[in-house]
Amino acid sequence: GGLALLAGILLLGAAGGTYDLSELVNADLTDHSWYVPLTLLIMLGAFTKSAQFPFHFWLPGAMDAPTPASSYLHSATMVKAGVYLLARLHPPLGDTLFWNNALLAVGFTTMALSAVLAIRQEDLKGVLAFTTTSWLGALVALLGVPGGYGIKAAMVGILAHALYKSALFLSVGSIDHATGTRLVSKLGGMWRYMPITGVVVIISALSMAGIPPLLGFVAKETLLEAVVYDTVILGIVFVSAALTAAAGYILIWDVFFGKPGEEIHFHELHKPLEYGPAVLAGGTVLLAFLISPVIIPLITPIVPVEFSLYLFPGFNSIFWTSIAAIVTGLVFFFLRKPWRSVPDFPASAMFVYDQVIAGMEWTADQVLKTQNGKLRHYLITILSVAMVILLYGGLASGVVSGDALTLGTFATSDILDIMMLALAVIAAGVSVIVQRHLHAALALAVFGYAIGGIFLVEPAPDVALVQFLVDTLMTVVLIIMISRVSIPQRKEAIEALRRPLDTNANIIARYRDVALATVTGLSMGTFALTALVNRENRDSIAAWHLENAEPEVGVTDVVSAILTDFRGTDTLIEIAVFATAALGLLALLTISREEKPESEEVIEALDADSFINNPLTRVMAMFVLPLTLVIAIVHILYGANAPGDGFTAGVIAGLGVALYYVVFGYESIRERIRWARPARLVTGGLLLALFNGLLPVLFGGAFMGLIDFIPALDFANLKFTTTIVFEIAIALTVFGGVGLIMEAIARPGDVQVSEETPESPEAPAPVTPGNDPIPSNQ
Predict the structure, then answer these.
(1) What angle do CA 747, 750, 754 make, to 5 degrees?
(2) Rounded mean pLDDT, 693-706
(3) Model's pTM, two decimal places?
């Protein structure tokens, strides 16, 4: 229901051209082409919220909630939210054949069915719950009465129902608290124990039954007046009102004056527990006599037609119909016991709902069986679905045509682009056909560098720099991960790919992969080319950014202005996502590790075997790390006027730490660089970014606004602004995130060893750089 309502509201706003409710209520969308789907979705959301058929079963099922919650939420406020929404949207959507018929059918079905079920309940809160859904059905149906003539009755009914039903719920809570039961068959004779509560229940139940001169009588009179135009509908309302009256008589007689079914263990209530319901019961009496000064002015702005409202309109046909419903309710009251003995319907709404949920869970279980841990199968599913959607969209829209795929002519200046594209294609092909994992990783690195070269030629130096750095970091991480996997397992993986296709299954799988890869490549290429050629408006917002970057933000690098100001909130969320992903990776890769630490001998052996560790590499690592930190600081300070920013600074510093991991090993680096604690860096970066965004608010500015802390500063072309602080926060977060990733994959406990022991004659030699066909220390 909530999702349907969300979709309906989105369509409503799109159809009305605004999401401002004060403007939408003055619009007329009944002739819009989306009228039926958006109205149906909004109705579905309102019906589920207000417990309309076939969703009526949830409200009685919610009676396990504390009684004050039932009083406030389930009778007075929350469940009426759907009714309120339908009433609020009546001006733009209402009073059409579709609207009227849908609300009348659903509302009166709910009213009649719930009234029938109410007097079959043993639980007092069950009786109140079904009479609530019955009245909610009446309110929904009244909003569907043609001409808006039912809105008056709906507004009076909302107020009357809130008063008497809240009082009844609270009183039932008092009874349950005093006796320990809510079952009608066990209760009886409560008048002598709880006279104040008895008075409250009598007044409120009679108001629910529509007895004059209470506000419930006025509500029932206006209901009958609104539906008198149709004999069938009038009959449904008459029977439902009589059944509701019978439920009120049950609450009065069976609980307070009847003979108890068993001995009642009663304890005194605190008197204040009875005062709250008494105030509500007093309201249902008092407001009936204050119709002119209170109720009419209250509902006049809402009712779209002229109306009159009286406590006693005279001895007319509506009055005698109301009295007849009261008397018929007495008949139903005396027939309550045989009616309760009738077996339940074999297929209830709850049964259907349970079957639907069971079917969904079975379907989910079947889908879950496809999660077999093989990445290839996941990619097949993802790419297949994406390609079907893409191809269907292109063919259905008619965009894909000969004109759409025109490549145009190439200029001499395009030669570098062509060379980079050719290099990217070659590198991608090499990554598929090489025999070693290390070579495949290096080929992928070349592919990434070629793409970065295209960005550099265009020119887009900031994007190119990010591409180069990320590709470098990815390659380093990939190589380290390869080094952590044992030689036999890597051999087995390669041999599995190169094994002859000796079975039909293997042949089909190979051709399937080739076909899917081909279709994906051609489809994405066609999509990109079509999107570029068929762009209706080739005007770009680049010119606006170029013109406003320096005047508005004080920077000449447009990319920096976008990341830290124009779309600074996006960047704030992105670094939070990056940090969360890094923490998630750390958790996934360490969750199964033993808490017992490795022995020092094992750690030293793993460090010696898995990483470069000689005097030359140690000197290089100790020289590179401070150099990367200096470069990172320069990127932060001068990112406003030159390529580079906080993100590139964090990656550059992370690469320096990554080299430390490669050279010195996991345990050694934790001793050598104690200050580089990734979790602290991530936490500090996120907190600094958030504080930097909130700081302008404290001075009356906007979130993520620009503050120049030292406007007169003119030293080395530096400016100390919130932009610099944000760049520092980004750099800390990214640096810490890279550290978390390195810490996750470089722990000694992750090294996978062969199941064969070194002492076995058949066992392979120990994992050392000298005999590894894919040297881990490269």
Answers:
(1) 140
(2) 85
(3) 0.58
